[in-house]
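TICKET: design request
STATUS: open
ATTACHED STRUCTURE:
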């Protein structure tokens, strides 16, 4: 397989930029371009932590866009046939690439958290406010991950030792208080 990055000018003064993949040809430069910056193809290497399934399926769906000299873009070729099952638009908000908590949503999440509103209720409120879970652009897992990361960032150096000291004081005051911990 040979990959070329082309930039050419047609007779009408338009410049077309694209990527051509030619079957049947192979060289080291094109195989490196396919692998990106990695020197080892981790899909077949035994020295990787997690092996992932091969997800490429040779789909020929594509769009070729050209840009003319006055910076107007034009679709030159569009092939919409896929050789795999595509997901319905109502489920695309589950894709990791489509999930992002915006700054206004972060502010509302922080207010809900400081007001001690349960994450499930706060998420339901946010989804109703935006017009449904599809419009929210993040899921419950993202919400919880944000709160966990925020708590971790805000934890001060002496917080854990202060908690341990408090629990040891409780053990001295109340003989029924049980404390067991391991330092690690």
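STATUS: resolved
RESOLUTION: sequence designed for all positions
ATTACHED SEQUENCE:
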């Amino acid at each position: 397989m040979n990959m070329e990055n082309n930039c050419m000018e047609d007779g009408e003064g338009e410049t077309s930029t694209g990527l051509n993949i030619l079957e049947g040809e192979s060289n080291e430069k094109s195989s490196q371009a396919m692998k990106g910056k990695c020197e080892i193809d981790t899909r077949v290497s035994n020295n990787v932590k997690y092996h992932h399934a091969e997800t490429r399926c040779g789909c020929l769906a594509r769009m070729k866009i050209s840009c003319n000299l006055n910076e107007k873009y034009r679709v030159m070729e569009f092939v919409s046939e896929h050789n795999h099952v595509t997901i319905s638009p109502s489920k695309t908000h589950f894709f990791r690439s489509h999930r992002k908590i915006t700054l206004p949503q972060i502010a509302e999440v922080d207010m809900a958290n400081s007001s001690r509103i349960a994450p499930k209720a706060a998420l339901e409120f946010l989804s109703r406010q935006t017009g449904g879970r599809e419009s929210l652009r993040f899921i419950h897992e993202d919400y919880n991950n944000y709160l966990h990361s925020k708590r971790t960032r805000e934890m001060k150096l002496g917080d854990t030792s202060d908690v341990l000291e408090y629990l040891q004081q409780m053990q001295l005051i109340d003989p029924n208080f049980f404390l067991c911990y391991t330092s690690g």
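CLOSING REMARK: Helices lie at 28-35, 103-114, 119-130, 133-136, 140-154, 159-173. Residues 88-184 form one domain.
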